[in-house]
Amino acid sequence: MKRLFITLAALTGLFCLLAGPALADFPEKTITYQIPFGPGGQSDLEARRQQPLLEKNLGVDVIVQYKPGGGGSVGWAELVKKKPDGYFISGINIPHIILQPLARGNAGYKTEQLEPIALFQATPIGLAVLKESEFKTLEDLAKYAKKNPGAVTCGGSGTWSGHHIAHLQFGKMADVKLTYIPASGAAKSIAAFLGGHVKAVWANSNDLVQHKDKIRILAFGTEKPFENTPDVPTFKSLGYNLFASIDRGAGAPPGTPPEVIKVLEEAFLKIANDSKVQELMKKDGFVPLNMGADKTKAYIMQKKEVWMPVVKEFKK
Question: Which CATH number fits domain 124-238: 3.40.190.10, 3.40.50.970, 3.40.50.300, 3.40.30.10?
Answer without folding.
Answer: 3.40.190.10
